[in-house]
Amino acid sequence: MANKKPILQLKNTSIFQQESLILSDISLDLYEGDFMYLIGKTGSGKSSLMKTLYGDLPLSKGEGNIVGYDLKTLKEKNIPFLRRKLGIVFQDFRLLNDRNVHDNLLFVLKATGWKDSSKCKAKIDEVLEKVDMKTKDFKMPYQLSGGEQQRVAIARALLNDPELILADEPTGNLDPKTSLEVMSVLEEINKRGKTILMATHDYPLILKYPHKTIKCDNEKVFEVV
């Protein structure tokens, strides 16, 4: 691993929600270009771990570094900058229903400081091309299938060239066939060098696309061999 850059490192990390201990003593390394699954039953701490990684839950115990940020000393004002280096994909797509696909993506670019409209247009075309949605940029979210909405959500996650994509149950609301289509998009993005950490309980996907897998169980996180 000497030549690969660590994107995420946790060492003796414990995760709390308010006073409740959710996960204890996590040690984890994720390197550039890796694809890792995070599995575990509902309520086992997958989402709490994800929330800690994108700054939604503070890290109070242990060490944590992600895309160059120290989670232990992360200040509120720096959370937006951390999130720009992460691409976050949620189960429920979270698209803005009052604007079309192109304008959903433009909203994110403007919010993160892009000004030049021709550069914005080129970037939006580029990410939509990656998820095979370039011809549907004029459609409203409600005119798209669940799988298409999730592709747009993945495109949105790619806008600021993130160092790491955190996908939290990205196929959770999709049928098996659509899940495979979305997964093949993520696989393709990973093949092009993007690092992905994906929380899932979709075991058929894991069997079809095997990658390193870690599991949350009984307040612990361990690698599944």
Task: Give an account of the 3D structure.
The chain is of the alpha/beta class. β9 (212-217) and β10 (220-224) form a beta hairpin. It has a single domain, classed as P-loop containing nucleotide triphosphate hydrolases (Rossmann fold). The strands form 2 sheets. The chain has a 6-stranded mixed sheet, sandwiched between helices. A 4-stranded antiparallel sheet has the order 2-1-4-5, with helices on one face. It has helices at residues 46-53, 79-84, 101-111, 117-130, 146-158, 176-191, 203-208; strands at residues 6-17, 20-31, 35-39, 61-66, 69-70, 86-89, 164-168, 195-199, 212-217, 220-224.
Question: Main attributes?
Answer:
alpha/beta; Rossmann fold; 4-stranded antiparallel beta sheet; 10 strands
Question: β content, as a range?
Answer: 25-35%
Number of domains: 1
CATH-derived topology: Rossmann fold
H and E order? EEEHEEHEHHHEHEHEE
The profile of the biggest β sheet is: 6 strands, mixed
What is the CATH class designation? Alpha Beta
Extract low-pLDDT stretches: none
Number of helices: 7
Q: What is the CATH architecture descriptor?
A: 3-Layer(aba) Sandwich
**Order of strands side by side in the largest beta sheet?**
6-7-8-3-9-10
Report how far the terminal alpha carbons are from each other. Answer: 19 Å
Overall structural class, as computed from helix and strand content, comes to alpha/beta
